Amino acid sequence: MSRVHTELVSDDAAAIDDCWNRIGIHGDRSCPLLADHIHCRNCSVYSAAATRLLDRYSLAQEQRVSVHSDALAADVQTRSTVVFRLGEEWLGLPTRCLVEVSPVQAIHSLPHQRSRALLGVANVRGALVACLSFVELLGLDPSVAPVGDARTLPRMLIVSADGGPVVVPVDEVDGIHAIEARLLDTASASAQNSNARFTRGVVQWKNRSLRLLDEDQLLSAVNRSLT
C-alpha cells in the first residue's frame, strides 16, 4: 500500500468511526439499523462520515503550504506521464500526481453535493475517498460515448490532492510512459494557442493526439471542488 494511501487510512481511522467495516455491510452485519437501511450507504452515519471526509479536504486546503525542492525539479525532468482516455480523448498527467490505478469501485452519491464535479465517495480498502469527474472539470462533452472493445476496461485513477487522494473514473488507462522532453517542450510552447481547459498543449504521440494536462491548474480545480 502506498504511503499516501496509508496516511489516508490512518487519518480516517482516528477521526471517523468506520462502523460499516465492523458491524455493517462490510463487517459482521450485526448493526440493528441494517434492517431498515438495507445498505450502509443509506444510513445517516455513513453520510455524516462522508461529510467529515470532505471537511478534512477543506481544512487541508486552508493549511496548504507551497513547497519547492530540488528533488521535485529533478522529478519534473523525468517526464513520466500516465496516459488515459475519457470518451474519445487521450490525456496525459504527470505520474507524480498518481497514487495508483485501481479497478472500478461503486460510487455513492451524497445528499448535498458541493460541486457539479463531485460525484460522491468511493470505498477504497475500507476508506472513504472523494470521487471527482474529470469530464466535468475539463469541460468535456459527457454525451460522447466511450470508444474501445470488449477488452477495454474502465479504471479509476487515485490522484494525490492537497487534502488527500481523490478517485477519478476514466474509460481506459494506456499506462505510464516516458514522454520525450522535446515533445513536452513543444506542447508547452503551443499551450498559449490552446483554449482547452487546464491544458499545457497537445502533441502527436503514438499516432494519437495526446492532450497534456497542466497539473497545477487541474489540482487547484480539484481542491476548489472539494472545499
UniProtKB/TrEMBL annotation:
GO cellular component: cytosol
Subcellular location: Cytoplasm
Keywords carried by this UniProt record: Cytoplasm
Pfam families: CheW (PF01584)
GO terms for biological process, alphabetical: chemotaxis; signal transduction
InterPro entries membership: CheW, CheW-like_dom_sf, CheW-lke_dom
Domain CheW-like span(s) in chain numbering: 78-224
The organism's place on the tree of life at top rank: Bacteria
PANTHER family the UniProt entry points to: CHEMOTAXIS PROTEIN CHEW, CHEMOTAXIS SENSOR HISTIDINE KINASE-RELATED
Protein name: Chemotaxis protein CheW
Organism for this UniProt entry: Pseudomonas graminis
